[in-house]
Amino acid sequence: MLVRTKLTDGCKRITKSTFRSTVFQGGNMQRKLNSNLTCIAKVLRKNMTRQERHLWYDYLRGYPVKFYRQRVLGKYVVDFYCAKVKLVIELDGSQHYSLKEQAKDNERSEFLEMYGITVLRFSNYDVDTNFDGVCLYINSAVESLLEEQQASIQ
User: Fold this and answer.
1) Which pLDDT score, from 0 to 100, does residue 20 have?
2) What whole-number distance in Å separates Cα of residue 85 and Cα of residue 147?
3) Integer Cα distance of 62 and 13 in angstroms
4) Fewer CB within 10 Å, N or C, the chain?
5) Minimal CA–CA distance to 89: which of 48, 129, 38?
């Protein structure tokens, strides 16, 4: 995501150089705080879409396993992240259906999956029309990932 406008809350103008501060060692993503991305994440938390607010306040916020919203992971800000099971949830609006945006989404997903992070994508339409189904799918994914963790420990 490249933001070309000046953001509020003291965020600086964002350029491509913003995304060069993540360190990768031994296959693990080491989070070196990037103040520009952190600032963007803060602004995005304050300006969530209607669907993001619905999923956060009506489901993920009170979920038994902790989720974070608008979290910086590497060179990206993801909509929701559960560190315990390494799960990202992305909500896609209509702009994500162009070929260019789909290619960017695939690149983002591949990047995160390189570090063992599972990515779930839902359209805003899914959240609007099948909220219970989205929540059941997320719950099923979390339970499955927790079971995989338990099996690998034993």
Assistant:
1) 36
2) 10
3) 34
4) C
5) 48
Q: Which helix (H) or strand (E) holds 96?
A: none
Q: How far is it, in rounded angstroms, from Cα 116 to Cα 64?
A: 22
For the chain, domain boundaries: 49-153
* More confident site: 3 or 60: 60
DSSP states along 34-85: -HHHHHHHHHHHHT--HHHHHHHHHTGGG-SS--EEEEEETTEEEEEEETTT
State the virtual CA torsion across 39, 101, 128, 145 in degrees, nearest 10.
Answer: -80
Range 82-91 average pLDDT: 96
- Separation of alpha carbons 98 and 30, rounded Å: 32
Query: Quick one: which of 48, 43, 80, 41 has its CA closest to 61?
Result: 80
Query: pTM value?
Result: 0.76
Torsion of CA 129, 132, 137, 140, to 10 degrees: 180
Fold of the 49-153 domain? Endonuclease; Chain A (3.40.960)
